[in-house]
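P.,

For your records, the input lines for the assembly:
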Amino acid sequence: MAQRDYFGLIIVAVIVTLIPRLIENEYYIGILVFTALNCLTCMGLCLLMGYAGQISLGHSAFYGIGAYATGILTVTLAWSPWIALGAGACFAALVAVVVGVPSLRLKGHYLAMATLGFGAIVHIVFVAAVDLTGGPNGIARIPHLDLFGIELSTDKSFFYFSWAVVILGLFFALNLIHSRVGRGLRAIHGSQDAAGSLGVNTARYKIQIFILSAVYASVAGSLYASFVNYIDPGPFDVMHSVLLVTMVAVGGMHNIWGALIGAVLLSILPEFLSELSDYFGGVGISYNPDYDMLIYGGILLAIMLFLPGGLVEGIRNFLRFSFNAVAKIKRRAFS
Amino acid sequence: MSSGGSFTDLLQFIFMGLQRGSIYAMVAMGFNMIYNSTGIINLAQGEFVVLGGLMMVSLTMSANISLPLAFVITVFFVTIVGILMERFTINPVKPPTVMRLIIITVAVSILLKGSAMCFWGKESHYMKHFSGTEPFEIMGATILPQTLWIFGILIIIVAAFIYFFNFTMTGKSMRACSINRDAARLAGINDRKMVMLSFALSAGIGAIAGIIVTPIIQMDYSRGALLGIKGFGAAVVGGLGNSIGAVVAGLLVGILEALGGGYISSHYMDAFALLILLIVLFIRPSGIFGSREASRLKEF
Amino acid sequence: MRRSIVFTTVMTVVCLFFAANLCAESDEYRVGCAFAVTGAASWLGEPQKNTVEMLAKEINDAGGINGKKLVLYIEDTQGDNTRAVNAVKKLIQKNKVSVIIGPSRSGTAMAAIPVAEAAGIPMISCASAEIQLEPIDQRTNIFKVAPNDSDAIRIIYDHIVARGIKKVGIITGTTGFGAAGRTLMLEMAPEYELEIIADETYSPADTDMTAQLINIRNKGAEAIINWSIVPAQSIVPQNIRQLKIDIPFYQSHGFCNVKYAASAGESAEGTIFPCGRILAVDTLPDDNRQKPVLHDYKTKYEEQFKDHVSTFGGHAYDSLLLVVDALKAVGDDPKKIRDYLENAKFIGTGGVFQFSPTDHCGLDKTAFEMLTVKDGKFVVLGQ
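Structure tokens returned:
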């Protein structure tokens, strides 16, 4: 792990501890819990997209698997939510192996469509397997998680917990990137054939990352179920998978910090727009959330066309560019 | 009540499957068009179908324009959308990496879907059948006149396709581009024009599919994704890039879906086509009609 | 120096915004609404928002409640569970409302219920699923004004039994509404000595239900019940007609939408379905107790919004009038409002309500009237 990354981790931790002191209102804290869950999923997806170079348009399926594992095991079988979370992660990993081994042999577009199809099928199962999942009626009264005897039932306690998980996930991901696996992955991204010829076991690395990203998504899903206490198939559809890809792409898929920032920005955006509407509603300016789709689509398209490295890389390049320009002007002025 | 024997039912399921399959076949042909000229899978393909259907509804039901004229206007309009898409979102991408192109077509599909929702609203739109709703009876099974229209138009499109690619200069140039783009360019073919043309044709076919199916299924803004992915399933089963294969595979996928829904479980009807897609992708990505050598798995 | 000026300005603006929020005047009653105003379920939320805004203006123009102004905070759930949870939290924690009306969809309601329960704020849901109120001892703050699905089934089953029919085929949409109806229909059939011989479903995106209907026909059904709330349900009567199946056809109260009847066209003629009385006000007998309320709401709504009145807007109408009654009687303490609601009696657009500590819905099967489609219009089914 680079020194920069340690520094980043500490900043995140400081912000997380400060936020509840600065923001009294639990409503905002609640939004940040959902933000944390998206961050967790997007980190996994970023490892897959940016480092292993594989796209998944079906990641909400793993998110859903985690949520349903928690829902079914805790409500129907009365297991502890912690064991359910672990079981969900194991199951997601298993599914990732079954889907991943054949589909990661596929390249580019084939893989995109295979994961898209997989995500759609899982969503259909959530809807149709009524005896298991409750179908469209979903599963209610999912218990809260408890930590050392403290029930995580308030937004604030869950906020600390979910961000602690994010930091842990981040720590792990950063370590991975700077390990042998990470270097191998970057080689794959550059050229799969070249990496293979240098003895990098590309297939194994790719499948490992796929499993890891599935586990991240599944844990986020389990946390979602424990936090909201109710699940139905709604939040786990193909559109959510696309939204996750958007978050990663907007922030910058080649950098895990980028994915994190993309997830934070796009998770807060709808609430921000609704707040703006509230403030300016009095003067007749209001925002209609029906335009959400145009906004997301527009942002994604603009980023891909003009800033393919994402916002983070774009800003970095901009800063570097302006720094150089300023230096040039200074040099010219002095000479 | 049980007037229909099992054969009649089978026939009814097959009619239903053929009707669904015809639409998948047309979507698959659209995928192939663009794939052959650029190697891109256009994830916005399903949205062309939606646009075609919704536009047609507006023209015939609200503006009271006659069917043939509305048909022409709609196809023209969606074709323009296809050309604009290529000009503004595909053409400028340098370097065209797979990941970027996939995400861009996803972004375009979200934009088209969002625009359709803002313009036509969220409710589903219905449209008069081309020639009445009195079903014909064939050996006990019934079939709507609209379904016959769908079969007829599919046959015309396939015939036009064969003619275009085998007997016209432009069609042959397009085929040349898909076989070897560099060689085609050396032979004096304007390959960039061919890419634009492929988007135009592909959007046009999508629009036609949307127009003819809307009276039966009632179009709304959100139908694109599922139509797109099932159409892609047909394209893969038929061997990506192989248009005649796509038509056969489209009909096959439709029939399997109808039989699955009828005999196994209607609860999982939508999953059957997707399952076929995954199985073929995993076991034989070159498709069941394409030989392994013939299907060049392009780098992107 | 310049930086500090910018900083001070920004901070002042931020503080002003916060101050504007914190300045809560006590001469007003705050009521929160969470409706699916936009998104795929906006056909539920939009009339609800229109209705409460119309009513609130009317009440305030007439001097408010107990001399206090009625202030509505309307949040858009977009029909999305996560957004609904956030919306209800915002209403409770930021806007400090004393009671919440909504959400519109069963799924969003189920997701929001734990939030309202934990905060002890009464919530009057406009969604129909009965599981919202189960178990009643853990749902002390939750009420609903939409009629019970089970009552709609009772009235359909009564009608079927009276015709001497024994074998029924059901076809349901795979949404919350459809799935809840499916479970109840299967559960309640033995009570009426009916046999469900076919149980088929279709997804909201489905385009052709021929396969399902053939199965229902082949199993020898003597009547078909189509239970769904999505537009796709109007394809079912078309397919029935195409297959020339000639047996009684029933729909659920999810069919209570003039647009569905229009898109099903001729094939909807003769469909029998239970529905709230709002859609057939004109054909109701004059001595009906609800008629004045219904007539009043329908005239005002259709005049102001130039749109057909719907049962869904009616749920919001009933909820707000209930809340107004409660505010008039006990003021804006959430606990007292809850206690009031638990014993409220009230004639609304949805029926004659009679709440009790064990019944937080307060409606029975008399909330429904059997309607049929005649010449493209909804009319009360004559015996």
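Two observations worth noting. Chain B touches chain A through 45 residues (CB under 8 Å). The CA atoms of residues 279 and 285 of chain B lie 9 Å apart.

Regards
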